[in-house]
Design a protein that fits this description.
Layout (H helix, E strand, L loop, with lengths): L1 E8 L16 E5 H9 L6 E4 L12 E4 L7 H11 L2 E7 L6 H13 L5 E5 L3 E5 L3 E5 L5 E16 L8 E4 L5 E5 L4 E5 L2 E9 L1
Parallel strand pairs: 1-2, 1-5, 2-3, 3-4, 5-6
Antiparallel strand pairs: 6-7, 7-13, 8-12, 9-10, 9-11, 9-12, 9-13
């Protein structure tokens, strides 16, 4: 297992600021997102896609063609990273723009949960799929939302203003949006299901 860290940029709402690339062992992007990097004089290690959005391919960057239209560019580049042995991936540009793309990206995250550790960052905070025991640090006074897709059972929390004690959440019935962290560390435990956690400043 390759524990090195990857920065992946995809073609949603582009970040107002990207982190320092030196904190990552690999930087990559889908072809649509590559334009943002090029405009900001940033160079990824590789790009992938069908390249229909690029007038010409960069000569100094590995370009992996993925023309299969049965999968999104996000899923295809996740498969490439998995095949290269990478596990820990920070994803930028997964939300914003067309909301069907955003929901498709959440679906892909669920599909790859057992193989990849994905953390998504946008201009408002970050979000991820919770493990059955999840600890969030440095979050006091931040907004924490728990969103099941479609349900999560036996949720217990510590460190949130509105605590849950062995309770279910179900999309379309009751979800846990806009809670508040009242301590610097929040713990979330749940027994089964799928649970996204959103942490916003």
């Amino acid at each position: 297992m390759n524990l090195k860290k990857v920065l992946l940029l995809i073609d949603g709402e582009q970040p107002k600021q990207l982190p320092d690339f030196s904190g990552y062992d690999l930087v990559c992007a889908t072809d649509g997102a590559y334009r943002f990097l090029a405009e900001n004089n940033l160079t990824p290690d590789f790009i992938s896609g069908d390249f229909d959005s690029l007038e010409s391919l960069p000569q100094n960057i590995e370009a992996i063609s993925t023309p299969d239209q049965d999968y999104t560019d996000f899923e295809k580049i996740l498969r490439i990273l998995h095949n290269k042995g990478y596990v820990n991936i920070d994803v930028y540009g997964a939300s914003g723009k067309e909301q069907d793309h955003f929901l498709g990206n959440l679906s892909a995250a669920i599909k790859w949960k057992s193989k990849l550790n994905l953390t998504f960052f946008d201009n408002y905070g970050y979000y991820f799929l919770a493990d059955n025991f999840t600890k969030i640090a440095d979050c006091k006074n931040k907004t924490v939302s728990l969103v099941p897709l479609p349900e999560a059972q036996g949720i217990t929390t510590d460190g949130l203003k509105y605590a849950l004690a062995d309770e279910p959440l179900t999309f379309g019935k009751r979800i846990g949006t806009r809670n508040e962290a009242i301590s610097n560390e929040v713990i979330i435990i749940f027994k089964r299901g799928v649970l996204f956690v959103f942490v916003n400043d």
